[in-house]
Design brief:
Elements lengths: L1 H30 L6 H17 L5 H29 L8 H24 L13 E4 L2 E4 H23 L1 H11 L1 H6 L4 H26 L7 H15 L4 H21 L7 H13 L9
Antiparallel strand pairs: 1-2
Helix pairs in contact: 1-5, 1-8, 1-9, 1-10, 2-3, 2-4, 2-8, 2-9, 3-4, 3-8, 5-6, 5-8, 6-8, 9-10, 9-11
Length: 291
């Protein structure tokens, strides 16, 4: 019975991680940025959704949309206020810009985390689920919203796949991830592509954050573990590989779920971090990453 419970819960958690990680991987593949404020953005989306329902009295669906919109706005602000100025700063040597961007997004994430804690306290918040009730599967009763969460995550991943592979914008984005200079020579403005990619990422992170708040609940302290899980997933899957990220998301999701059930929820992130260390030694380019 517990094995089925782990299987079902792990699937939903892994789907959430997969949705967030695909966006995280997308912006790295196209713009070369590892956004270390990722966890804080997801937490912001969840907390804003909670506050909209609890303090403004809006419905759960409207609250979820407000949370996603807040994450989108903050994501674009991250790009325009932190990432882009550092990438274009003439006083920073080209070979050092990457570490400056990493540091800038890390500090930005800490700022978001502290603002969430200041305005909404650091207590855990649970976003009102979109679906109520439970479903019995093989004798295991699970919340209907858990199944809905996994479904929405895979719909989001499927739509992203269609966007990248079946639309003109997606083909330009895919080309930019392979050869940014070549795209500019074809007459496309790279800055607009970056903005579009960051907007897509903001939507995916917002959806994942709100759904996570409905499923597990979040607090300002959740930002660091979420960032650690996302970083583990993209490194394990291979930097820039969305397919690798999906495989890695389920590996990490099930590792964390097994740890939470069999040992303690307090230690759920430790096995995935140990796996990250092993992968960096044995296969540093990840499962499907390019050498």
């Amino acid at each position: 019975m517990i094995a089925l419970q782990i299987l079902l819960d792990g699937f939903a958690v892994s789907a959430l991680y997969a949705l967030g990680a695909t966006g995280f991987t997308l912006i790295f593949g196209v713009s070369g940025v590892l956004n270390l404020s990722h966890g804080a953005l997801m937490v912001l989306a969840a907390v804003i959704a909670w506050a909209s329902a609890a303090e403004l009295g809006v419905g759960s669906a409207a609250a979820a949309l407000i949370g996603i919109a807040a994450c989108l706005v903050m994501t674009l602000l991250t790009y325009f206020a932190v990432v882009r100025p550092l990438q274009q700063a003439k006083k920073i040597p080209r070979e050092e810009r990457e570490i400056f961007v990493l540091t800038g997004t890390l500090l930005w994430g800490i700022l978001i985390q502290e603002l969430v804690s200041y305005f909404f306290t650091s207590n855990a918040k649970a976003v009102e689920p979109l679906l109520s009730g439970v479903i019995a599967i093989g004798g295991v009763r699970i919340p209907s919203n858990e199944i809905f969460t996994a479904f929405i995550c895979w719909v989001g991943i499927g739509l992203l796949w269609l966007l990248v592979n079946r639309t003109a914008l997606g083909k330009v984005v895919l080309a930019a991830s392979m050869n940014a200079r070549g795209v500019t020579l074809l007459g496309f403005e790279l800055s607009r592509i970056y903005v579009a990619v960051w907007a897509i990422y903001g939507l995916l992170a917002g959806i994942a954050g709100v759904l996570l708040g409905m499923f597990l609940g979040v607090s300002s302290y959740s930002a660091a573990p979420l960032m650690a899980s996302a970083f583990t997933i993209v490194v394990l899957g291979g930097l820039g590989s969305i397919s690798g990220s999906l495989i890695a998301a389920y590996t990490v999701g099930y590792l964390e779920t097994l740890t939470a059930y069999l040992i303690s929820p307090a230690y759920r992130s430790i096995p995935s971090l140990l796996l990250l260390v092993i992968v960096m030694y044995v296969r540093p380019h990840g499962l499907l990453g390019r050498r």
